[in-house]
Amino acid sequence: MSAGVAPTRELWPAEFVYDGLGRPRRHAAVLVQVRPAPARVITVGSFAELREAHPGVAVGPARRVIAPPAVNAHTHLDLAHMPLTPGRYVDFVAAVVAHGRAGGRGLAAAEAGLAELAAAGVRTVGDIVTDEAVLTRLLSEPDLQGVAYWEVIAPDPADADARFDAVADLVRRVRPLERPGGVRLGLSPHAPHTVSAHLLQRLARFARSERLPLQIHVAEDPGELPLHRHGGGPLREAWGPFLAAFHPSGRTPVGLLDELGVLAARPTLVHGVHVDEDDLRRLQRAGCAVVHCPRSNAVLASGTFPWAAYARHGVSVALGTDSRGSCPSLSPVDEWGAALEVHGAAADPAQLLWSAVKGGHRALGSAPPKVLRGSLAADLVAWRYPGRWPPAGVRLPGAVGDVAAAPG
Ligand SMILES: [Zn+2]
Asked: What residues pair up with 317 in beta bridges, in sequence order?
């Protein structure tokens, strides 16, 4: 029993403190009762005010950030063994396919990804899954929450019904493995150019009726725009036979998802680099969250995420690393640090911090953390960003991007 131990308090200062309530505070501190163990939070507030109110309390080392663990809202754990492959999107996708054919994906790779997440202190993840053994493993993992999204790629509408039946069958078999507080099952129709409109609609209706979360890659590469607008461009040139049955809608990728009724299922959209004002209004109206992956965008020269425009439209943004093939680590704290460097003065550091924690939980539908009086101090962690971004050979985009006005 700890009844005989005199209470000992400490003040933990940081440039940013986030308790999961409201916005992160700048130049703040956490007043902690460190003994008797376990250490518990007394209050969070301005460093100057807490220092004045508690003059005899020892002050701990200053930190950059004290916050709940960051969320990695989008990754592909089974690509953990893929080497970093900078280059164009179409070449990168070819490298992913070759890596899979060479046996580089699967459970062993996903285990390596899980170990990396654990070492980075990540407890909440959105993972894209292509292997049933990996799906089973994630749904059974006791120390993780978030969503395991089963990936669907089928651009030919002739395949839509058979693929839908296979997905519905998988959901029926696997769903009983879901456990309260653990990883949930979700679906990931890969992208609006790799899944036919008919299958996108069937999957979105199914997700709504079954309450399955959705995650969709969208507007990552500039080449998606001409493909959807008139059917041409670099994606058509590189993937002619694969896209033989793809017919352009004349819309933007986000506009197409909205017109098909897919946004009504409130999917989380990944990347969203090439969006216009009309797209942003549609996302805001539908209440869709977007996962920003700044390091992957730089490695694949995708362009710069229009951070300020998303903030202006009030669209909830999360952070994700994407796969090890386009990102040098699976740490969302590294992603946050890189986002600070990429966006500079265009982004509010406190808002980016919100995105890395609460934005991630919102995107995945998990319970966001709240650090209240009496909470365990261990619910808060000191974030360390080593500042190794960009790595050698990766050039950051020069200018901070913004969105184009809506056409018409
Ligand atoms: Zn991805």
From this structure: 290
